[in-house]
Amino acid sequence: MNTSVESPLTSTSTDNVPNVSIAVIFHSNYGHTKRVAEAIVKGAHQQLPESQAKVVDVHDVDWDYLDQADLLVFGSAVYMGSVTAEFKTFMDETSKRWYHRVWEGKWAAAFANSGGLSGDKLAVLQQISLYAMQHGMNWIGLPLMPTGHEAHDLNRLSSFLGLMTQSLDGPPEETPGSGDIDTAIWFGDHLAKTIIKHQPAPTKP
After folding, report:
1. DSSP structure class, residue 24
2. Do 11 and 17 form a contact (C-beta atoms < 8 A)?
3. How does DSSP classify residue 109?
4. Which residues contact 95 (CB under 8 A, 6 or more apart)?
5. How far is the C-alpha of 116 from the C-alpha of 167, rounded, in Å?
6. Cα–Cα distance for residue pair 196/12, rounded to 1 Å
7. CA 180, 181, 184, 190 torsion-angle sign
C-alpha cells in the first residue's frame, strides 16, 4: 500500500475511541463488490474496534445495527448505469425509515464497482447520494488526490464524490487490483476519522 498519502485528519488511537459505529451495506453477485466493502471496513478498523465497523449484505440486513450506526456506507456493482436490482430493493425497503426520518442526521458515503474504467460509476454514486439526501443524511466524499493512473495507484480513477473501483473478468481474490483495494482501505480509515472528529462534545451534568 502506498503510505506516502495520508488522510488529512489526525490519526486516532483505538484506545478510548468514541462510541461510534459504521455499517457498510453492499450487494455483490460475484464477490468483487463484497471485497471492496470488506476493504473499507478493514480501513475503518484502523480507528475502531471490530464490533464498531461491519459489512452488511443486503440479503441479510441487521436493521437494528443500521438504525444505531453513525455512518452508513452504501455500495453496489453497476448494472446498466444503475445500482443492481437487489440494491434498489434494499433502498425501497427503507421507505418507512424515510417517512419517519429514522436516519436523518446520520453520515453517509458510497462506493461503486464496475468492469469498465468508467462504467457510469458516477451515475451510481449520484443515485446513492440523492437517496442519502432523501433520508436527510450528511455526505462524506473521497478527498484523496490521485497518486497516478496505474493499477497500483490510489484513487486512480480520480473520483471525489465517493469511491470508484474496477473489477476485471477474474476471481475477486485478484480483482479489483491493489490500487483500488488500497484506496478502499484509505477511504474506510478516513470515514472513521471523520465521524470520530465530528462527534458531539459530551454533555455536562
Report:
1. E
2. no
3. E
4. none
5. 8
6. 8
7. negative
**Cβ distance 196 to 18 under 8 Å?**
yes
Can you tell me which residue has the cell 462510541?
A: 19
Per-residue pLDDT of the chain (205 residues), as tens digits, is 444 455 544 444 445 767 899 999 999 999 999 999 999 999 999 999 999 999 999 999 999 999 999 999 999 999 999 999 999 999 999 999 999 999 999 999 999 999 999 999 999 999 999 999 999 999 999 999 999 999 999 999 999 999 999 998 888 888 899 999 999 999 999 999 999 998 876 666 5
- Cβ atoms of 79 and 123 within 8 Å: the answer is no
- Does the pTM surpass 0.70? The reply is yes
